[in-house]
Amino acid sequence: MITYLSSALTGVVLLSGCGTDDSSTSQVSVQVPFNTVQPPMPNDGYGYDSDGTISLPDEPDTSAIYAQSEQETLSYYQSFETSFAGVDGWGLCVEPIEIPLQSVDSSLVYPLDTSSLERAVFLFDSETMQPIETKLSNDGRNIRIECESALESAKTYYLIVTDDAQTQFGEPLQADASFASLLNTPEKELGERTRELKHKTQLALDAYVGHFADTSKEEIVYAASFTTQDTYALLDTIVTENQGATLQFSPSPVTINEPIKVNTKSGVGDLFVKYAKYQGTLTSNYYLPFSDADSATCKLDKYDPISSCPDMYRWMTNKDGSHVSADNIALKSEEQSIPVDLYLPYSEQGQTAIFNKFKAGEIPTIIFVHGVTADKSAASLMMKDYVDLMSRYAVIAIDMPYHGERIIEDMDGNPVSAAADKSYFININSPLTLKGNLAQAVGDFIALRWALNDFTKTVPEVHLVGHSLGGIVSVMISEMTQPKDNKPIPNPLELTTANFVVPGQGLVNLTLSSLTLGEEMADSVKASSDVQRAIAETVIPDQCQPDDTNQTCMDALDHYRLQSTANNNPVSMLEDDIFQALVPVLKQGVQTTIDASDPATKVSRQVEKLQPTLLIEAKGNCGQECELGEYMPDAVVPNDATDNVMTGTEPLIKALALEDITSDVTANPGSTIRGVIRATVGGHGTYLFPYEGPMDESGLPAQEISGEGYSSLNTQQEAVYQMISSLGDEITFGDEDLGNVEGLE
Question: The pTM is what?
Answer without folding.
Answer: 0.94
